Amino acid sequence: MRPTVAAPESVTWTVHLDRAMWVAGVRALMLQALHPVAMRGVWQRSDFRSDPTGRLLRTAHFVAVTTYGSPEEADRLGEHVRRVHRSLSFTDPDTGRRHRVDEHDLLVWVHCAEVTSYLETAVRAGVPLTPAEWDRYLDEQSTTATYVGLSRDDVPRSVADMRRYLASVRPVLRVTPEARRAVRFLLWPKVPDHLAALAPLKPLWFPVGALSYATLPDWARREYGVLPALPGAGAAATAGLRALRRGLDVVPERYYNLIFDEATVRSAEEAKERLLAAGYRVENGFRALRSRTRFRPPQVPAPRSPADA
Questions:
Q1: Which Enzyme Commission number(s) are on file for it (predicted)?
Q2: Among residues 69, 138, 142, 148, which one has the least CA distance to residue 103?
Q3: What are the b/e assignments for 255-266, b being 16+ CB within 10 Å?
Q4: CA angle 169–153–170, rounded 5-degree value
């Protein structure tokens, strides 16, 4: 029996255990908001407006469980997600049409916005991945799509396929008033109750939100118009992202884990026990294990953007 959903040797572990994922997760929400119908669903049927941070933490939990949770744990979470989605519907005010949250095209868009954000942010942050590993990552993540009710072949499984998909959906994407308000929420979110003690540190969030926004495609930032467009913004965003990643990397794990919900931390601890039983050395944590199983020379040229959306 597999100890975890994805193997520690996978590209998924390399991407998802990197601390640049905080920026990637927020960027994914900002990118998802550009689909008008998907954004209306979030606006009407989720608690995003009252607890945007909570939604980000739930996304982090889903990513964690479908990365290093047990197969049984991931199956249970997937069934819960599908059950919740089946019960929700909403109305598009532009057309008057009633939509289900779990419509095929909406699920595909949410998946693609997430995985392209995770991969592109990781590459820009300096995670050393080759173009072949970009393809491997998207292929691995097609399994994650099955937990929300899609099949592996419903989603792009290579960079070339992902670029074609993004080009095909681009005419549908636009900034709605709800999307612009969502981005403003993400730049300055409400502090959840369980992190109330950290409220004085809230200004430290802004670099995460600003970098998430700055790494969006140029056309998206132009349409959002929430933050000013400055010359050299792309290079500055990449440099800032790498600096933030280096800063987060020096935070001890016991403090870093305070950000996550208890269920996410518990899932990680249980995964460590399973990996230890399977013969992996995890006494120094997941990230140390990953670095040993996926060693590379330190000097790897940064390739161009995998999504290039």
A1: 1.-.-.-
A2: 148
A3: eeeebbbeebee
A4: 5
Q: Which two tokens stand for residue 233?
A: 């913004």
- 109 touches 169 (CB < 8 A): yes
DSSP H helices in the chain: 11-16, 21-32, 36-45, 52-68, 71-86, 104-125, 131-145, 159-169, 177-187, 205-214, 218-224, 233-249, 253-256, 262-277, 286-293
Q: What would the pLDDT profile of 103-139 be if each residue is shown by its tens digit?
A: 999 999 999 999 999 999 999 999 999 999 999 999 9
Phi-psi region for residue 279, left (φ > 0), alpha (ψ -120 to 50) or beta?
left
Amino acid sitting at position 184? R
Contacts for 290 with CB less than 8 Å, ≥ 6 apart: 8, 13, 14, 17
* Residues 307 and 135: beta-carbon distance below 8 Å: no
Asked whether the beta carbons of 143 and 155 are under 8 A apart, the reply is no
CB 68 within 8 Å of CB 83: no
Contacts of 236 (CB under 8 A, 6+ apart): 214, 230
One-letter amino acid at 211 equals L
- Alpha-carbon distance 126 to 273, whole Å? 30
* Residue at 54: amino acid letter: G
Amino acid at 151: S
Closest CA to 303 of 154, 125, 179, 158: 125
Q: Token pair of 177, please? A: 């008033």
Question: Does pTM surpass 0.85?
Answer: yes
In our burial notation (b when 16+ CB lie closer than 10 A, e otherwise), range 145-160 reads bbbbbbeeebbbbebe
Which parts of the chain have pLDDT scores under 70? 1, 47-53, 191-203, 283-285, 287-309
Residue 149: left (phi > 0), alpha (psi -120 to 50), or beta?
left
